[in-house]
Design a protein that fits this description.
The chain is mainly α. The protein is built from five helices and two strands, in the order ααβαααβ. A two-stranded parallel sheet has the order 1-2. The mean pLDDT is about 80.
């Protein structure tokens, strides 16, 4: 069963962890290097957590199937517009594989799955902020 993790790793330690066999582990990591945040001086003022964010997180936490389970998988389909956009990405991705080898090619080959996972996550985050019925389909019309 795949497990998604979010966290931070130091680049040099990450590089050392991938030395050795080409076992596909490298391809299962969705890499991101966020930009540095601007400097802000220390303050004793504490910003209140916005109720919209608390409500959105509560919607996500409260998702259940009605059964007593710790993990509730969701299936969400793509609209025809989203399918067309995803197919364009898959074509781009497929044509780019030839320029890569070893670990970079392994990582690139997993990119369609990463894209779908991120899209599904963003779809549920949008639903959690806006409310309404739980999403059953990703429309592909968002930014």
């Amino acid at each position: 069963m795949p497990v998604g993790l979010v966290g931070g790793l130091q680049p040099d330690k990450l590089a050392r962890s991938f030395k050795g066999d080409l076992d596909g582990m490298y391809a299962r990591v969705l890499f991101a290097w966020p930009a540095d945040t601007p400097y802000r001086p220390l303050t004793n003022e504490v910003a209140e957590v916005e109720p919209e964010i608390v409500n959105a997180l509560s919607r996500i936490i409260d998702l259940t199937t009605g059964e007593e389970v710790d993990f509730t998988p969701r299936n969400i389909s793509l609209s025809s517009e989203a399918t067309e956009a995803f197919e364009r990405f898959r074509q781009f991705q497929h044509h780019g594989k030839g320029a890569l080898d070893c670990r970079e090619r392994e990582w690139w080959a997993k990119s369609p799955a990463h894209v779908l996972r991120v899209a599904g996550t963003l779809c549920y985050l949008d639903w959690a902020m806006v409310g309404g019925a739980e999403p059953k389909r990703m429309s592909g019309s968002e930014g």
